[in-house]
Amino acid sequence: MNLHNKTAIITGAAAGIGAASAALFAREGAKVVAVDIDRELLDQISAQIGQVGGECLAVVADVSQRDQVENVLRSTMQKFRRVDILFNNAGIVPTGKLEATSEEQWDRAMAINVKSMYLFCHAVIPLMKVAGGGVILNTASATALRAVTDRACYTATKAAVIGLTKSMALDYVLDNIRVNCLCPGTVETPSLIQRLAAFPDPEEARKNFIARQPMRRFGTAEEIAQAALYLVSPSAEFVTGVAFAIDGGLSI
After folding, report:
1. How far is residue 189's CA from residue 177's CA, in Å, rounded to a whole number?
2. What pLDDT does 55 receive?
3. Which residues contact 164 (CB under 8 A, 6 or more apart)?
4. Is 154 part of the annotated catalytic residue set?
5. Which one of 118, 154, 172, 230 is the catalytic residue?
6. Is the pLDDT of residue 104 over 90?
7. Domains along the chain?
8. Helices assigned H by DSSP within 6-151
């Protein structure tokens, strides 16, 4: 699954699945463009990749803003001259039933979880077409395959990601652009830890979250990164339009 001489843009790269994927892609030879809103964590990821001989360009950006997305692409092309892989991983997890979801929360989730993918794909696809092809990977969620309680807005955004992925896969298959999405289950990430901490009893909440997992454990960011690596690698050249569930059986 060698990514030698490939340039990969990864959004939401400062922590969790994005950070694990950035490190793994770099170990496999990719030049990584790590995109996130958190400058301090991005610099840490970039430094870690550099320490093991990899190349990483850290770009701070709000992925829901067109001008900042365009800056990411300008910076990428100036430094690496190409984009072979786009991993749209940035996202937020709004919680609550629909009636408890404000319009502001809804709009923000749609902007970060869905519009950002439109903006990056809109900018990257023309470059990939000129280059003769590329790979796009989007992060959806197992909740888009099997609903859970108190995730109405989040589930809507991730279902949209699956639909967008399948449509783009068909539209660009003859341009040699593969488009797939990951559907992770509950993963032990800083985001999950923050959400659990917001419960009145975080330990009880953790137990309840684990109890709904058929494997009785959370996934790890590294496990999701391995799936991402496969889907963006030459090993998956016959794979497109797939919503790949990696959820410990949650969506069964």
Report:
1. 30
2. 97
3. 114, 117, 118, 138
4. yes
5. 154
6. yes
7. 7-185+221-243 (3.40.50.720)
8. 16-27, 39-51, 66-80, 103-110, 116-131
